[in-house]
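Now for today's protein.

===
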Amino acid sequence: MNKALKLGVSVLLIVCEVVVVQAQKATETIKKTMPKAQVLLIDNINGTVEVKGGKGDKIGLTATKTIVGNTQNDVNNAKDKIDLVIFRENDTLVAHIKAPNLTYGRNRNNQRGFGYEWDDWNKQKGYDFKFDIQVNVPENTHLIVRTINQGDIRVTNTKASLKVTNVNGSVYLENIAGATRARTINGQLKANYTKVPDQNSSYYALNGNIRVKYPKSLSADLRFKSFNGDFYTDYEVKQLPTKVVSKTASEGRTKVYKVDEFTSVRVRKGGKVFKFETLNGNIYVNRNK
């Protein structure tokens, strides 16, 4: 008598429970109204900065503070430690970020101008933060605007000088008139002028295009350099001779001669020098329509 032997296959069902830990977040809105200043410095770290010029005589600031932490306890611990600090020194109004392991003031890294000291910044753990800042200013306020991550810089309708710096974000300057120093590392740089700046100006984008529009009446010398890009313009231009720069070598009296890496062209009769530089991007200088 044959017996059939049935082998039962036991299937072990393993249920894996994936636990998703959601980051905790807190937001706060900060609003300030202040008397006008000759110079306004907005020194952000993470987040956008938008500045609008107008006819008023006050400076109005609105900042949205966002803190994201691994746990609610991380967020609660960071709430009072992260803040926007505003102070006035002489003719300058300064707004900067206060955070643990970070100091702010005049320092050697910024040619004794205002800036951050980052020595212990890497000790920050458990949370991240950003400030999205909107400011309304009198149109003749001189501006210094900086941010690093998580946002663009946008300035509109101003007439005074601009110094704008971003790292991981774009720079947009619309309906402006003042002398300009604008710089970004990873982003686009766009500027649109209602009036030709009356001082030399410069524009730098390491990885991004530069697009600048001036009035049709532009008369200036344009200097441009791009390693992986081209220069485009709809102005009638005349190419200028390449400059040879000399300097004394460190050994003593020997002079070293170097050909200027910038190409220079002249629009109309020339005038102020506007310099454009990018590594990976094109440069466009066009007439305002």
In short: The chain is about 5% helix and 55% strand. The CA atoms of residues 128 and 241 lie 51 Å apart. Residues 30-160 form one domain. The mean pLDDT is 88.
